[in-house]
Write a structure and sequence with these properties.
118 residues; alpha+beta; Arc Repressor Mutant, subunit A; two-stranded antiparallel ribbon; 4 strands; 13% strand
């Protein structure tokens, strides 16, 4: 069984009633980095602009300063950028995922043998 981290591990970092960072929010930040736009990132991930904006807003309220800043539209259109804090949060989150994945590897093989094989 050749599993990838995202198939097994769903690391979420809670803050009060919200998830400050999780796999979906990390992927959204990466999509915003690539597209320069919250709406384009949402489309790429199959979510509405409203949903993407809600996730960005939640992250912005969970961290000490915004992780994404948005520019208003105009002739050239708007856009969004991931801030330095957002980049650092994303880097640290992905590092936590990697460390957690490495930590469960020894037991995952033994556990997998208990499961029905497809």
């Amino acid at each position: 069984m050749d599993l990838q981290p995202q198939q097994v591990l769903r690391l979420r970092i809670p803050l009060e009633d919200f998830i400050a960072m999780g796999p979906g929010k990390a992927t959204l930040l990466e999509a915003i980095l690539e597209t320069g736009s919250i709406s384009a990132a949402g489309r790429r991930l199959g979510m509405s602009y409203r949903k993407a904006w809600q996730l960005v807003d939640q992250m912005n309220h969970c961290f000490t300063s915004p992780v994404v800043t948005a520019m208003t539209g105009g002739v050239g259109g708007g856009g969004a950028r991931v801030t330095e804090l957002g980049l650092e949060a994303l880097r640290q989150y992905r590092a936590l995922e990697t460390r957690a994945w490495e930590a469960i590897q020894p037991g995952l093989g033994a556990f997998s043998r208990l499961l029905q094989q497809p």
